[in-house]
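[User] I wish I could look at a protein chain and see how it folds. I have put the entry right below:
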Amino acid sequence: MNTGLRRSEALSLTWEQTNLGDNPHLTVLAAHAKSGKTRHVPLNRAAVEILTHWGKQQERDGLVFPSRGGTQLQSIKTA
């Protein structure tokens, strides 16, 4: 919610595309962007804190929001 990503962009996001250090941002790859162009989305403090906490609960490899089987989620019902 703090990033403005489209659902499909968030669900395809990998940990490799996240930068939570200096100049925190997400990289949305062209293949997943509506515009067809890669872009960098800045992260606010709340988003960094949430992603940092989320990352501690799982392996930081592959998808940021995987399904239980490790594959891409198909939908999100609530924030």
Remarks:
- The CA atoms of residues 6 and 33 lie 8 Å apart.
